[in-house]
Amino acid sequence: MKCRECSGELEVARSCGRVRMRCTSCGKEYQIHEVAADLDDKTVAILERYTAIIYD
Ligand SMILES: [Zn+2]
After folding, report:
1. Among 36, 40, 50, 53, which is most buried by a count of CB atoms within 10 Å?
2. Ligand 1 centre from 56 Cα, in Å?
């Protein structure tokens, strides 16, 4: 999925037990709820893997 600032690619970033989306181009970070409406299938699949880890 794309960054709202620069259209760069967002990657899932996990830190301190929280999962965020981070732009690989400009470095802007988004909380998951901020971008929830735009999540694509690929990103959702990644997040499901992370939440499985976090809440295990
Ligand atoms: Zn960006």
Report:
1. 50
2. 31
Q: What are phi and psi of 18, to 5 degrees?
A: -110, 145
- The parts of the chain modelled with pLDDT lower than 70 are 51-56
Torsions phi, psi of 23, nearest 5?
Answer: -75, 130
Q: Classify 54 as helix, strand or coil.
A: helix
The letter for the amino acid at 53 is I
> Separation of 31 CA from ligand 1 center, angstroms?
14
Ligand 1 centroid vs 49 CA: distance in angstroms? 24
Three-class DSSP labels, 20-49: EEEECCCCCEEEHHHHHHHCCHHHHHHHHH
Predicted pLDDT at 55 = 53
